[in-house]
Amino acid sequence: MARAAGVSATAVYLHFDSWTALIEAVLEQHFTDARTRVESPTAAAGSPRERLDAFALALVGWGLAHQGPYQLLFESVDWLKETDAVRASLDEHVAALADDLRSAGAVEGRADAVERAELLWTALQGIVAERRRQARHVGRRDVTEDVLGMVAIFAGPATGRAHAGPPRIPA
Questions:
Q1: Quick check: 64 and 132 in contact, CB under 8 A?
Q2: How far apart are CA 171 and CA 168, in angstroms?
Q3: Where are the alpha helices (DSSP H) in 45-164?
Q4: For 19-155, which CATH class?
Q5: Full-prediction pTM beyond 0.85?
Q6: Contacts of 4 (CB under 8 A, 6+ apart)
Q7: Which of 82, 89, 118, 170 could serve as 61's disulfide partner, Cβ 3.0–4.6 Å?
Q8: What residue ranges do the domains of the chain occupy?
């Protein structure tokens, strides 16, 4: 990391107390980027169901476009994923997904909504991981179709899109 920043290895520790603090700062920077990319289209969506689609498309799109940071954030060793910044962000996203699942009528109770939101989150991570592993292979379907299909499994079919067409994975 020091070489990439153009400084000596010891200079890094002038800014960070420890290796763990450095890693947490890197994670927080990547999480901030991911949050910005995911929250912007989600906030622009109208209905809870549209927010679910927008969130899912933006998350998977970010993961595929930023594979190194994605792997660091979501496929790294457990102690990295349990940092305060990562844990807080994951909890916020699961809570927002649960709220939208309830508002969209997919589930009624809070506990059921949280469980379904965690399962949707896991399924979306699975799409990113599978697409990353098979980057050299042509998929049978467009990734957008896979993402929207997965959201439909957890939230029910989308309505009201006949005129505008389906949303796409953000560039």
A1: yes
A2: 9
A3: 48-65, 67-74, 78-81, 84-103, 110-133, 143-155
A4: mainly alpha
A5: no
A6: none
A7: 170
A8: 19-155
